[in-house]
Design a protein that fits this description.
This protein is α/β, with parallel strands linked by helices. It is built from 14 helices and 14 strands. The protein is globular and about 65 Å long.
Amino acid sequence: MRILVLSFYFPPDLAAGSFRTSALVDQLQSMLPKGATVDVIAACPNRYKSFRREVRLTEQLGNVSVKRIPVPVHQSGLIDQSRTFLAYARGVRDHVRGVHYDLIYATSSRLMTAFLGANLSRRGAVPLYLDIRDIFVDTVKDVFRGRHAAALLPALSLIERYTIRSAKRMNIVSPGFEAYFRSRYPEAQLDFFTNGVDDEFVDVDWGNTRASAGRIRVLYAGNIGQGQGLHAIVPGLAAATADTHEYIVVGDGGARHLLEDALLQSGSANVRIEPPVGREPLIELYRNADVLFLHLNDLAAFEKVLPSKAFEYAATGKPVLAGVAGYAKSFIEREVPNACVFAPCDATAGIHALRSLSLGLTDRSKFVEKYRRTKIMRSLASSVLQTAGIDASGTTTARVANGR
């Protein structure tokens, strides 16, 4: 039994897909029958130009081999991201040439990794399990507006149809995606395994709150892209609370310059932008924050998503300020106590929500237990193995589990 795992991002890269795939591989490694192996093929760290790490191109970790493909640096635009992905795809094809796999697993937010998995699956008549973390057609339509994006949509829709219909089974990370996929692909066998709380955020003493020491510290940590729309909200929040709050934005991305320009125009002096960091320094930043801030742009595509950052923030017990709509809004309001949700890009509503939060820690132990990443990924790994004809005990079986 040999399983191919395709994930564009993999540790030490900083991305939701990186952490998710690493957790899944850990579970597969412990659940596979004797003699079975997993080949992970990822790109070398490339999420942010400002966060580059030297890595070994090949690693052997027990029954798991990791191959990293060198790719060019990108600036998060469609053209340079496409160039980067093509380098990855060529490297994958070279690496798998002549190798037989019993299952292909592909995790994808921008569709193309899933498409690559579908192509390899069809060419080799190998079962395919897809992990879909975004609806790329929706994102392109709403985020990358203009003639070039519009011209791409028919082709992307065809690629999506080819990809989804190639899968024997697929998981969708946000239940908010269900209506989209049910309406277009009613024959698809769907799982619903969300992101979750990584072990690094469990059993941490989050009590080092700063609420009583000077201005209230609001922290945003994550991607700074068009999808997050920070340039449309942070300057307004900062200007209205200049005497009482300070804002720290930790990350990078294609819209960082828009945020910097907007802050320059607003004259907000209580905002600091810092480069992305690894997990250990990030935990310390969380410990020293009073409020954790989450925001998605005011676009229809983002009403279906469930940001992975919501799980990370909730695990700390710190107050959460969330400018989100749709499924993310209902999830946070239902699952995360002491979180205030407001309409995206609405600074007036954001200020009201910010001032409604209770500073200090909230017991969210039930949330952490419910959404432990290890538990969720073990269930995902079990479904992946069933698709390959192996039950969770490691016994080969001819039946694949059906249903939700």
